[in-house]
Amino acid sequence: MNVLKKFLRDTIIYGLATVIPRLMNIILVKLHTNTLPTTGYSENTTFYVYAAFFNVLLTYGMETAFFRFFGKSEEKEKIFSTALISLLATTGLFFIVVFSFNTQLANFVALDKTFFNLLIGVLVLDTLVAIPFAYLRATGKPLKFTAIKLINIALVVVLNYYFLWAIPKFQIEFPYYQETNLVTYIFTANFIASLVTFLLLLPYFFKTKLQFSKRILKLLLNYSWPIMVAGLAYVVNENFDKFWIPQELGKSINGAYAGCYKLGVFMTIFIMAFRLGAEPFFFNHAKEKNATKTYAFIMKYFVILGCAMLVFIIAYLDLFKTLLVDNPEYWIAIEIVPIILLANLCLGIYFNLAIWYKLTDKTRYGMYISIFGAAITIVLNIALVSKIGFMASAWITLIVYVAMVLISYFLGQKYYPVPYDLKRILSYLFISIILSVMALQSNQNYYINTLLVLVFLGLIVILEKKELKQLLKK
Question: Is the sign of the CA dihedral 314, 318, 320, 324 positive or negative?
């Protein structure tokens, strides 16, 4: 239980690095949806789709490879230095090549040249700090990690409000300010925040003597490249709908879809907080005798908390809708929210299951599973969105993540068996879905829905009473 307590503590601290920025993003969602038309919000979404794709490509799984070998190696400084030099070299080459042909490339991806240049700037800066951030996590410095993350998001929020709200409201003079092109200032705010983050982490570039090892680089790359491919496939799974919907249904529909998709942010916060704390913990704990039992315990409580969040958010969906996206122009896509919440929960379960191929160095299986999911996502979206509409994309997301969970579970039990409590896990999933459907059918009657939430919480207390008492005592 002491090990679990440390895991819980670190996850809570990392959770702050995730929860607070995401809460700030909630504020930004409201600002952006109130300030931008749905077509403008679609352009904003497209920018971050490309950012997500290239971020995975530029880091090429080096963060996860760093965690895998840093914890168990006696050559920690050499691993850190080699990973850092590798990313510095490839990122520098990327910048030189892309910036040399920025006009042609901007036209190719159908982005304004200014947007494209800002995108490249954000990508380069964020890639350069990937290993320093990973170093903070691997060496058990969650507070410093969290502080820098919070500074980053604080700058993003303050600058967004300055550019989009303060300047037009108070008629502040700003050189070349264009009220008709507000999306540019959203990207500018992100670039400035990324630059400040880079400067704060700059001392870690000189943390140790630079040592480059071809042997270690080969070791890292053999482990990381399947992670990169899996990451690219994950980006496709998460974002192909937002790429394809504007082609078939128009930018306005895509903006509404993307805005309502953001209502899944609370489940995303939970998953991201878990991943930040879990990844280094799982690697560091792998040699312990009771490791698999610990992983099974964590999975069960991950599902319990995720299911509780599912029921709670759906029970008060109208309240969250008004809180995040109070522009009725976006509400045409509100029906996707319950499906996306459940899909995100399944994605979190998949991330939890993924530990089997990371610990057994069979990362290619993760790549195969993700490619399978991406292929299904692309094929079904192309086939169904034009016929059914944006609801098809939401259902496809859920179907793909359920399939990935099932494949990963059965392969994992073959190569790295973990004694997951399937009976409890499936029971919580089934009950939470039933209660969520009942909450949707109540027409947002808060008395009924509050009762449904309390029923689920009471069920958790009854079924997990003994373990909860032990955790609280520890």
Answer: positive
CB atoms within 10 A of CB 38: 22
pLDDT for 152-175, tens place per residue? 988 998 999 888 888 888 888 888
Which pair of structure tokens corresponds to residue 25? 């993003």
* DSSP assignments along 112-169, one per residue: -HHHHHHHHHHHHHHHHTHHHHHHHHHTT-HHHHHHHHHHHHHHHHHHHHIIIIIHHH
DSSP conformation letters of 250-283: -HHHHHHHHHHHGGGHHHHHHHHHHHHHHHHHHH
Q: How many independent structural domains does the chain possess? A: 1
Over its C-alpha atoms, the chain yields an Rg (Å, rounded) of 22
* Assigned token pair, 202: 């700059």
Q: What band does 1 get if pLDDT is binned at 50, 70 and 90?
A: very low
Spatial distance between the Cα atoms of 341 and 361, rounded to a whole number of angstroms? 31
| Predicted local confidence at residue 228, as pLDDT | 87
How far is Cα 241 from Cα 250, in angstroms, rounded to an integer?
Answer: 12
Model pLDDT for residues 66-81, shown as the tens digit of each residue? 877 886 767 888 898 9
* Cα pseudo-dihedral 435, 438, 444, 450, rounded to 10: -40
Identify the DSSP state of 287.
Answer: T
Concatenated DSSP letters of 71-125? TT-S-HHHHHHHHHHHHHHHHHHHHHHHHHTHHHHHHHTT--HHHHHHHHHHHHH
CA 116 to chain centre: 22
CA nearest to 255, candidates 263, 246, 247? 246
Average confidence (pLDDT) over 18-44: 71
Q: What is d(CA 79, CA 224) in angstroms, rounded to the nearest whole number?
A: 14
